[in-house]
């Protein structure tokens, strides 16, 4: 569990990296870095639809009543009791029909557990959300249900599905204190986003909260660094994803995307190649086959470092020579990638703590001006998140600007059916094989036993 909240606590002094290196030069502010590759939203829900045929679990009245009791208070979880058929479950408990109780309670439990574990919001309302949530592998619903019924711990089992991060707990507490429906919905939206992520974020990770314009490094459950971030502007919005970071590259080259070649550098290469070379550009081909790479140096759009994060969106954390952007309060200026303040400190921290290099080795690599990769001994996730309500550090929460307008679709989904869950199918009865009576006759000299 993270000891210091990424949104409310001061970074712990678990590690201090001392660098006696020159800061990257502050140059012109019109630098463009690699552009995000926009991907279509996921619109198909990936919750399980049909479970394998199994024996229908047997529900005692006590277990079913515990489930109903949890549903009656599920508003505290940011969910809605009406979604989980409380009237039908109550009627099944009182009806005396065991088969009906087993079916009703099982379907209700699985739907509720799906929403607690993975979120209620359909994929179509999760705009530009591409994080991979592995909770379905670690918390399979059928096993969860079987264990809960066997131990008589239905309520306790459902409660274990909450995200373990203290920021989720802070939102849950604040939901009870919400003064208006709008305030409550804003909190619910962000509780949902926590559920769309892995329940536990890991022992070490980097997290960038886009609406907060901040990136934090967490190691051993403690924040060890906080950096201002510049994120994508509305037209090239930063998507939400959690790729694995595999290394840090210092003095990186920059391979220009076609869109940026077409915007100007292609014409400069054609009309004034000497100027393009002075800016560090090298190229092959021409026209539509033109391929351009900017070499390391003071003009390089990626500055002194780039974090290696393999993903189809071409999103990564990197430096920038445009330092002035970090002075703005709202920092949505990039083409989708995340520019990182104090990049020497950030990359040095990565190289020393996660790649096992010494500060001297890192300093020498920076000073050489040559592209150097420091591979991480154990890759770790980078969470590019989108929380618009966060702890305020004073026991409450604060609202951030919804810079991409991604809250409204989630709020709208609250009045619609949520994601589906597994449908348990009772095992088909065995095929009835008709009994055929065969009449045999005996012949002389035989016993009549066949």
From TrEMBL:
Pathway: Cell wall biogenesis; peptidoglycan biosynthesis. One of its GO terms (molecular function) is transferase activity. It comes from the Bacteria. Keywords: Cell shape, Cell wall biogenesis/degradation, Peptidoglycan synthesis, Signal, Transferase. The active site is at residues 318, 337. Residues 204-362 form the L,D-TPase catalytic domain. Residues 1-28 form the signal peptide. GO terms for biological process: cell wall organization; peptidoglycan biosynthetic process; regulation of cell shape. It holds the Pfam family YkuD. Belongs to the YkuD family. This is L,D-TPase catalytic domain-containing protein. It comes from Sphingopyxis fribergensis. The lineage of its organism: Bacteria, Pseudomonadati, Pseudomonadota, Alphaproteobacteria, Sphingomonadales.
């Amino acid at each position: 569990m993270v000891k210091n909240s990424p949104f409310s606590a001061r970074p712990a002094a678990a590690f201090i990296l001392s660098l006696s290196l020159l800061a990257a030069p502050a140059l012109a502010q019109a630098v463009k870095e690699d552009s995000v590759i926009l991907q279509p939203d996921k619109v198909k829900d990936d919750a399980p639809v049909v479970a394998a045929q199994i024996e229908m679990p047997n529900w005692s009245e006590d277990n079913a009543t515990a489930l109903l009791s949890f549903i009656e208070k599920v508003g505290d979880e940011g969910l809605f009791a009406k979604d989980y058929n409380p009237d039908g479950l109550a009627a099944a408990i009182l009806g005396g029909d065991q088969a009906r109780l087993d079916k009703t309670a099982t379907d209700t439990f699985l739907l509720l557990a799906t929403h607690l574990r993975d979120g209620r919001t359909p994929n179509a309302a999760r705009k530009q959300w591409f994080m991979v949530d592995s909770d379905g592998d670690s918390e399979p619903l059928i096993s969860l249900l079987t264990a809960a019924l066997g131990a008589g711990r239905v309520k306790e089992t459902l409660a274990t599905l909450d995200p373990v991060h203290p920021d989720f707990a802070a939102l849950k507490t604040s939901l009870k204190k919400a003064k208006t429906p709008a305030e409550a919905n804003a909190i619910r939206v962000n509780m949902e986003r926590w559920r769309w992520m892995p329940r536990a974020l890991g022992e070490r990770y980097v997290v960038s909260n886009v609406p907060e314009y901040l990136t934090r490094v967490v190691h051993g459950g403690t924040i060890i660094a906080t950096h201002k971030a510049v994120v994508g502007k509305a037209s090239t919005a930063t998507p939400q994803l959690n790729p694995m970071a595999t290394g840090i590259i210092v003095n990186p080259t920059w391979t220009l995307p076609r869109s940026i070649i077409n915007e100007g550098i292609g014409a400069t290469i054609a009309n004034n190649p000497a100027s393009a070379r002075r800016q560090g550009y090298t190229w092959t081909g021409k026209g539509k086959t033109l391929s351009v790479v900017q070499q390391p140096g003071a003009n390089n759009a990626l500055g002194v470092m780039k974090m290696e994060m393999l993903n189809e969106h071409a999103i990564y954390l990197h430096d920038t020579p445009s330092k002035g952007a970090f002075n703005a309060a709202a920092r949505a200026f990039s083409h989708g990638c995340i520019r990182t303040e104090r990049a020497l400190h950030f990359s040095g921290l990565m190289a020393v703590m996660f790649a096992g290099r010494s500060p001297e080795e890192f300093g020498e690599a920076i000073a050489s001006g040559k592209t150097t990769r420091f591979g991480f001994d154990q890759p770790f996730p980078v969470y590019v998140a989108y929380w618009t309500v966060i702890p305020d550090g004073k026991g409450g929460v604060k609202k951030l600007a919804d810079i991409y307008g991604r809250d409204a679709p989630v709020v709208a989904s609250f009045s619609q059916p949520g994601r589906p869950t597994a449908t348990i199918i009772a095992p088909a009865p065995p095929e009835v094989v008709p009994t055929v009576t065969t009449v045999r006759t005996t012949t002389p000299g035989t016993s009549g036993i066949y």
